[in-house]
Amino acid sequence: MAKIAFIGAGSFGFTRSLVRDMLTYPALQDSTIALMDIDKERLGYITKACERIVNEGGYPARVEATTSRAAALKGADAVVITILAHDVSVWRHDIEIPKKFGVDINVGDTRGPAGVFRALRSIPVMLDIVRDVDRVCPHAMVLNYTNPMAMLCRAMQRAYPQLKIAGLCHSVQGTAEMLANWIKAPHTEITYLCAGINHQAWYLEFQWNGKDAYPLIRNAVQSRTVYRKEIVRNEMFLHLGYYVTESSGHNSEYNAWFRKRPDLIKKYCLPGTGWNPGVHGFILKEYLARKHTWRKHIQHWLDNPKPLNLQRGHEYAAGIINAYMGGEPVRFNGNVPNKGLITNLPQDACVEVPVFADTRGLNPVHVGALPPQLAALNNISVAVEEMAVEASFSGDPRLVLYANCYDPLTSAVLSLAEIKKLTAAMFKMNAPYLPQFKSVQL
């Protein structure tokens, strides 16, 4: 009988889907599902949702709810982290302040000034969580879904290298399915090798029944309809030779090519093209729009008399936990320390590579060197992430400035003096949430 703890369980969509997936595995159907959140209202909603899943599936699982992290973690075999450290009223400034300086951000939860400050606020919270894991359930598998993925995982893996920690993102399998659809290939006939860093990993191989499918993808992208679905990523593919994970909107802000001028944003980040084409503040607008309606949507789901679809989705966590608890080993793409896995990215940095999960835990796969044009872009982002994480540990605000100075989009738009002013403004706004910085002298 497994115990699976959800920290930040009030993330309704994630927790609901992951619990549904986990209970599809026979070995996990009698699990104890420990739901923990500091928001009692959200915790109440997700508890009802999980109880509905258990009841409709006829599972012998048990659902527990608590605001105590230690209680949720006690005896846990697996820990799933889906927290959001602060409300939208806090992180909206990560996007709005840079815009005043001319840096147009689409999502801002991964890297760049917005991602850096989100990481600085979140790292202390994440370290508190894994400190409790180390104390209460040190053998548990820890699976993180919270962004900024690479920086948070790097901090946790650096502070607690003895723990089994992996970061999970659905962009790898999601993009693979998208590409398969474009070339009209059954998903089950597609295999791939994908590696790099979170939200910017690359399909080094993409095969259909063992044959290279990249010529088919190149042909598909020539279609105006397909091209417009992912303009930024398709441009990157056509020029760099390999397809990148995560949406065009996200990737438009991870480099210097698409958002440094209004005319380029208008050309490459067109509204109505793809689910996230790259419009300013995409996720911020989504959060603000549902700030006062989320209760209504959740209650509608809870009250809907239509039977639930309890079929397994494509998130990795359920299969990983099943494998760790003795089920069939599973391969996934995870965010783990670079212990010589990608030879032309820095040692120990957080990289996204194939990983096998089994009863031993996490077994990352050696990839070797990335093509130089891909490693060049990844290395810039890794350098920014490494400086930001070190800043959080050391409390040195100059490292935050340096991280922003080398962010590709920010450096393409602003001078060094302007980046310093931007960083100072963001420090001032975030001062109540950054206890690790005793003073800010840039």
Please provide a written account of the structure.
With 442 residues, the protein is an alpha/beta fold. The chain has a domain at 3-93 and 106-169 and 293-324: LDH C-terminal domain-like (Alpha-Beta Complex). Helix content is 48%, strand content 15%. It contains 19 helices and twelve strands. The strands form three sheets. A six-stranded parallel β-sheet has the order 3-2-1-4-5-6, with helices on both faces. The protein has a three-stranded antiparallel β-sheet with strand order 7-8-9. It has a three-stranded antiparallel β-sheet with strand order 10-11-12, with helices on one face. Helix 2 (40-57) links the parallel strand 2 and strand 3 (62-66). Helix 1 (12-22) runs parallel beside helix 2 and helix 5 packs across helix 16. The model has no long low-confidence stretch (mean pLDDT 97).
Q: How would you concisely characterize the structure shown here?
A:
With 442 residues, the chain is an alpha/beta fold. 48% of the residues lie in helices and 15% in strands.
